[in-house]
Design brief:
Number of helices: 13
Shape: globular
Oligomer: single chain
Order of helices and strands: EHEHHEHHEHEHEEHEHEHEHEHEH
Largest sheet: 6 strands, parallel
Strand order of the largest sheet: 2-1-3-4-5-6
Structural class: alpha/beta
Number of strands: 12
Length: 355
């Protein structure tokens, strides 16, 4: 009997995003194992082309986007009776996922919590804390907006209810144990879940704490994460407001940070656009404590792995289902309360006792 053709299908291709970095590893690995890899082309910013008045490049981008969508549809349209590993249905398309499930053996590699949360990062829109209100039964807050793809709340809810209806036909690939528990809590104990981890090749030096370079400034608190609320940016700025005697570092521009958190920054927050490769690695290494305060049930995050690899002191915000709760990688793990006043007291106590 002829073996089934195997496919890896992703709404995001190899790139610099979290899923993109994973795809840089998965694509060649799966191809070596006989899979055909199909993914969407990564779009470029139309706003950037408009800002720089690059109208020819803008026209080309529109053409390439249309061409990319058509090619993606053609490559996936005739897939039948195959084994399919599917990533990121928000960008690949829920309708495509359901069509794959109807005629193939599908494993869904879970990247975030979009399987129950229309925001993908399950933070409450009011409290900005970990939110589990839609686990089991969808009942999104009226302030919740679908992310990262814009659609109506009704359409997104319809897709997630349909996903629950067909969940018995899916093998869910979880990154960590608590994510696996969350999947079963939402879909039911009978749900097929395999915990396979997530390897983006970012933690190759996880066991080695490099020496701090004497010329690198040692900030009291270094934020290591993207400039979004769900990753804890607002929480860090509020900590800085509560603790004016300590110096905080955030790897982004002041203008962008103030735009995201919608407030002026306190004077004890130092802002500079820097990436891991252009200096953040050293800043993280030299910090008294690094903070990775994801405010959602985050699975494995590359930033947290790198923080633990290069600094023994790492703070997170305590969650019920986040990877931070089960991680044993951090030598001195400070789990902060999500209430800012309590978290600030915990952080202050640590910094005062820091040697």
């Amino acid at each position: 009997m002829k073996d089934k053709i195997k496919y890896l299908i992703s709404g995001i291709g190899p790139g610099s995003s979290g899923v993109g970095r994973l795809m840089r590893v998965l694509a060649p690995k799966y191809e070596q194992n006989g899979y055909k890899v199909v993914y969407k082309r990564e779009p470029k910013s139309i706003r950037s082309f408009l800002t720089h008045r690059a109208y020819l490049l803008l026209t080309l981008e529109i053409f390439l986007r249309t061409r990319g969508k058509v090619l993606f549809l053609l490559k996936t349209y005739f897939i039948r009776n195959s084994e399919v590993v599917f990533l990121h249905p928000q960008t690949a398309g829920y309708q495509l996922l359901f069509r794959m499930i109807a005629s193939n053996k599908v494993s869904l590699y879970v990247m975030d919590n979009s399987f129950f949360c229309i925001r993908s990062y399950n933070t409450n829109p009011v409290s900005n804390a970990e939110c589990l209100n839609c686990v089991g039964t969808l009942k999104p807050n009226s302030l919740c907006n679908p992310f990262p793809i814009k659609m109506s709340l009704n359409d997104n809810s319809k897709y997630l209810n349909e996903l629950k209806n067909v969940s018995d036909e899916i093998n869910f690939l979880a990154q960590n144990d608590l994510q696996g528990e969350l999947i079963k809590k939402h879909f039911g104990k009978q749900t097929s879940v395999s915990v396979i981890g997530m390897d983006t090749n970012e933690a190759s030096s996880i066991e080695k704490h490099p020496p701090v370079h004497s010329q690198i400034k040692s900030y009291d608190v270094v934020y290591h994460g993207a400039s979004i609320i769900a990753k804890g940016l607002l929480y860090v700025i509020e900590l800085a407001e509560e603790l004016p005697e300590f110096e905080f570092f955030v790897p982004d521009s002041k203008d962008n940070i103030e735009k995201v958190v919608d407030r002026a920054l306190p004077s004890n927050v130092v802002c500079r656009v820097v990436t891991w490769e252009t200096g953040l690695k050293g800043i993280v290494s030299a910090a008294k404590i690094v903070i990775n305060p994801s405010m959602w049930s985050a699975p494995i995050e590359g930033a947290l792995l790198k923080s633990a690899a290069f600094n023994p002191n790492v703070a997170t915000v305590a969650t019920e289902y986040g990877f931070e709760r089960e991680s044993a990688l951090i030598k001195n793990h400070l789990r902060l309360n999500n209430k800012i006043e309590i978290g600030a007291l915990q952080l202050k106590k640590f910094l005062q006792e820091y040697v």
